[in-house]
Specification:
399 residues; alpha/beta; Rossmann fold; six-stranded parallel β-sheet; 12 strands; 14% strand; globular
Amino acid sequence: MPDKKRFLILTSDSGFGHRSSANSIAKALTLQHPSEVEVSIVNPVFEESVARFLQKAEINYDSNVKNHPAIYRFAYEISESPSIKTLMEDTLTLALQKTLRQMIAKWQPNAIASTTQMFSAPVASVLNNLDFHIPFFTIVTDLADVHAMWFNKGPDHYYVASERVKAKALTLGIDPDKITISGIPVDPAFELSKATPREMRLKLGLDPDLTTLLVVGSKRVSGIFENLVTLENIIEPFQVVVIAGGDDDLNQRLNDYAWPFPTHVKNFVDNIPEWMQAADLLVTKAGGLILSEGLAAGLPIILIDYLPGQEEGNVDFILDNDAGVIAETPEVFYQTVASWLKEHQKHLTARAQNARSLGRPDAAIVIANALWQAAENPVPTTPPSHRKAHEFQYHYTQK
């Protein structure tokens, strides 16, 4: 049997989206080439040799974002400037270079992918000093306004979610031939499962005939309990599923409350595509991954929270395409749900159609195909900095 192709996917644990996207790509590779691939998903920041300040930044990300949003916004905006961006890239390269060299030597990958903005410059610097070429892709995990740190000329190819992200890349000097609009990679089950919402509700133990609101939270999502309480006044029948996303306090509070409508509370699940496919609408914050999952499932979206900075662009993306609304107060949340459940759910249906038109359930499969093709077709052995842009081009399989 020929040697397996080895893929190294680098990710971050600042939020769920980066790692979830990495998992989705790995799953797509394994599904398509079950006996031919080895996939390693690694967060280099937590390797032993990495500076402690980077590890602390990852560990404290949730609390810093939630407790100090103004500081987070300021840091996000100021680091968009070219000089600060370059300083940050140089700092990350210095801090991670040794670890990345060791990692690449250990795994000897046929191709590398990154699902976070932190590693584009450091990985490119390491690869530039090798005497052979390893294909390197960056997968951008926000829908619209993304940070400039995502983009430099090191990666061979970029996979982005939308025309808006591509436009940002172009303004930062990325060759248009190095950009593919793929969508953010979500679990391949969104593309492969053909179950109807009613069938999935039966499978999950829900009432198959009730309109189903899926609420997805985490420790960084505010206002879930306060918003749900307002639904007690709605006359139309419905049921609610809440996935607390590891927020133990929210999970306990929801379970302790006597809800007047059918309510199913889960602290954490590992089958989010099934819960999405069972739902009729999604209530969540404006994270790129969770929104991409909702769109892939064709769910209209009510946004109840967002981070300053990149998630503001995600809000605009949903609103501009009429795939959902933002409810910044419990009163607006109540009015939105009540309106969507009335009048034969015509508002719900219209936004579901818009969401479905935006969804890219095949994104992970598209990216996995490209990684496989890159690994199957090695390029010349001169370092990347010595070759022209056309030498980095691969053939991509895309629907």
